[in-house]
């Protein structure tokens, strides 16, 4: 019987205190508007904000690429640099360095 007469349980003998404690526990953990639920939602919001910034940056890169390809010189430059295209009367020499060859072998 010593456990029920403990000084730690004395405040819980009051009905109002007991109801308040149950209410606080319910609101923190079990309710639809609980602290845990809001914490999960805030985490999701932060992740979505990060993704939003990432996609904005990707859109800015794409806009730069579109602007570069909007001119005849930009199209020619991209075709030459990325796809190794050439005019009919010219030769192209591709120079590879040892470190770039080593990187290609590592990727394979």
Q: Can you offer a commentary on this structure?
A:
Helix content is 67%, strand content 0%. The protein has four helices and no strands. The protein is elongated and about 100 Å long. The longest helix has 34 residues, at 35-68. The chain has one domain. It has helices at residues 15-30, 35-68, 72-83, 98-107. The chain crosses the membrane at residues 15-37.
Radius of gyration: 33 Å
Oligomer: single chain
Total individual domains: 1
Task: Bin the strand percentage.
Answer: under 5%
Please mark out the parts with pLDDT under 50 across 5 or more consecutive residues, or reply none. Answer: none
Give the overall pLDDT as a whole number. 82
Global shape? elongated
Gap from first CA to last CA: 75 Å
Task: Please count the helical segments.
Answer: 4
Biggest sheet descriptor: none
Q: Please state the structural category.
A: mainly alpha
User: What is the chain-wise order of helices and strands?
Assistant: HHHH
Count of strand segments: 0
Task: Please estimate the helix content.
Answer: 55-70%
């Amino acid at each position: 019987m010593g456990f029920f007469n403990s000084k730690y349980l004395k405040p819980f003998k009051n009905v109002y205190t007991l109801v308040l404690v149950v209410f606080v526990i319910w609101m923190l953990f079990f309710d639809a508007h609980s602290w845990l639920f809001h914490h999960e939602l805030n985490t999701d919001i932060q992740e979505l904000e990060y993704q939003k910034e990432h996609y904005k940056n990707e859109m800015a890169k794409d806009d730069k690429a579109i602007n570069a390809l909007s001119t005849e010189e930009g199209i020619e430059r991209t075709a030459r640099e990325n796809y190794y295209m050439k005019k009919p009367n010219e030769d192209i020499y591709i120079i590879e360095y040892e470190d770039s060859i080593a990187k290609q072998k590592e990727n394979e």
